Amino acid sequence: MKKRLLCTILLCLALFIGGCSEHYKADYIKKFDSYLKYSLGDFEVIDSETIEWRGDPLPTKGTGKWWAIAFTDDLGIEREFEFRNFGYSRGGDSSNFGFAVMEYAIGLCKEQIIADVLLQHFEPDQIGYQENSTNDPKTSVSLLQEYPSNDNYAKFVDKKKGIQLKSIQPKELINDWGVSYRFNFETLIDDEEQTKEFIVKVEQVLRDYAKYVDNYDLLPVEIDGENYEDGYYGTYNKETDAFTWITKKEYLESLKYIDGNLKEVDTVIINGKEYQVRETYKDEKIYTFANSVTYCQETKQYHIKDFEDLLTLLGYKVSDSADYAAPIRWKVDTNTYTVSKAGDWYLLKNGGSNLLKYDGHECGGISQSDFEMISNTTVYMDKEKGALVVESN
């Protein structure tokens, strides 16, 4: 038994030191011959070789095959398509080759969009990531792709219904195959009139690109400025041919609100004294005040996570426990309240049934109206100060 165990250990050690090897031997030219003829028409293998690969960080290594094939597309342009028989996708040879074909199709259509759309409005030295830092107009645009939401890549190399690389067009790739593109516009312009002219150019690019897209509600667009807040967010409504623009500063500000209400409150005013959420108040033995005060769309109220900190500052004696999930108890006049933060939370009054009509965990704590009940206070939001106000009755 000991000898067998020793042999097993030595074998595992040898595999680790020497590394695991995997060799991909499938001949894609033969295996996908029908698809290649369907997709490319006449084609020629102009180069091929066996290549070595090594995994990182695991000590794995192996070999695979690489090919380069030439074909002529329907526009008479001579093309070269290079691919490997490994490393693109999991799920077998069809999925792996399908991903390679999809990526090549994305590149072909990207080339067409640049020629048919971008070069109609921008110079070649303005097309590319951060080209605005080197050209005179101080503007640039790059075209980015987004892959389909599912990973059924094998469908791209179906020998009867797959992508035909010799004739693929952006409209087909976008609407039938789930690929999408987006533009990233950048500018260092700080002149207001020049900025307006640049936005007009951006709008025309979106209008031209929209001819490829059959179904969408609003087409988004983004312009990056020298500083993040200097940029713009926009949407294009193809049906009404209208753009809506907002500065990134306004956009970032809008992210702070839900239905016109602050998502998260940083200040709580208790009987006229200000306290900062998550700050430490050692004299009161409070180390992360309130933890969070957030707006819940379900109740349309603000919710306080560590509400017991507020109770302490209001003068109530709250049960203390090192266990965060342990029930919290305190008395208000003749009533005894109990709250558990475990699971969905519960609130009991004098040992009765759960009074909470919402999920305390999902909403982020006790609601302001429930806090009024359990603390004999009035709670309201001071929008001008951006603070939750708590006043004893």
Count, helices: 10
Distance between the termini: 79 Å
Q: Percent of residues in beta strands?
A: 25-35%
- In the sheet with the most strands, the strands line up as 5-6-7-8-9
Proportion in helices: 25-40%
Q: What class do helices, strands and sheet pairing give?
A: alpha+beta
Report the average pLDDT across residues. Answer: 90
- Based on DSSP secondary structure assignment, what is the total number of beta strands? 21
The shape, in one word, is elongated
Please give a structural write-up:
There is one protein chain. The protein has 393 residues and is α+β, with helices and mostly antiparallel strands. It is 27% helix and 30% strand. Strands 5-6-7-8-9 form a five-stranded mixed beta sheet. Strands 1, 2, 3 and 4 form a four-stranded mixed beta sheet that branches. Strands 13-12-21-20 form a four-stranded mixed beta sheet, covered by helices on one side. The longest helix has 24 residues, at 93-116. The protein is elongated and about 90 Å long. The chain starts with a helix and ends with a strand.
